Give the backbone structure.
Amino acid sequence: MSISTDWFVSWFDSPYYHILYKHRNNSEAQFFMNNLTAFLKIPKGASIIDLPCGKGRHAKYLSELGYKVTGLDLSKNSIAEAKNYESDFLHFDVHDMRNPLNQKYDAILNLFTSFGYFNTDEEDLLVLSNFKKALKPGCFAVIDFINIEKAIHQLVLKETKIIDGIEFNITKKIQEGFIVKEITINDKGSISKFYEKVKCINFEKIKKYLELVGFDLYHTFGNYNLEKFDKKTSDRLILVVR
Ligand SMILES: C[S@@+](CC[C@H](N)C(=O)[O-])C[C@H]1O[C@@H](n2cnc3c(N)ncnc32)[C@H](O)[C@@H]1O
């Protein structure tokens, strides 16, 4: 069966995505944001874009830390929920990251594998180029991607998870340069199916992308504790670019 090129529209907008990933929670977001803002020494009051922000777990906390935060995401449902938390320093809107941002910011954050969804490299480059154009001079963007080499090496081909009484049957495979996850959901007898696809972008490939859009790579971390990246052992590939 062929997977829709827009698989990310339906999957991330569905309540099942949030149930399956509920362990990726506020405390994980807060731990990472404490470490990152301290490392980057982003001054209080700075303007930060969190794109895509999901329901805003990082954006909300960043605004509590004293930043002026805009959270953007394609998912209408996630943004509708995030809007409940808006304040003078925290705004949310629906936005496709392939479209340009029309202002300049002090930092742009792309967190928790929110990259590599599109079929063409041109679309990946467009996203990075939009980030580059929307950064004030000397300011940083952060791309928090999965360490694809470890993810491929440890790929769990088949598993079942039961969360909140809902059964998630998940298969994973490498297909045409993507890790493709097929998620079949049995919610009290009601069956639905979704896909998740992340492009196999390794460190070498992402460095080429950065070069093509004119980003310089400043730091590379391998986890939310900001430890050194190691392609064999790190869970994350976190890039700080400017
Ligand atoms: C893995 S989630 C991460 C969300 C958030 N950064 C977090 O850590 O909770 C990926 C997000 O990307 C969003 N997304 C997918 N394609 C997008 C696009 N073209 N433009 C903007 N957001 C998109 C999804 O709606 C989803 O919320």
Notes: Residues 166 and 187 are 5 Å apart (CA to CA). The chain has a mean pLDDT of 97. The domain at 7-150+202-241 is CATH 3.40.50.150 (Rossmann fold). The chain is about 30% helix and 35% strand.
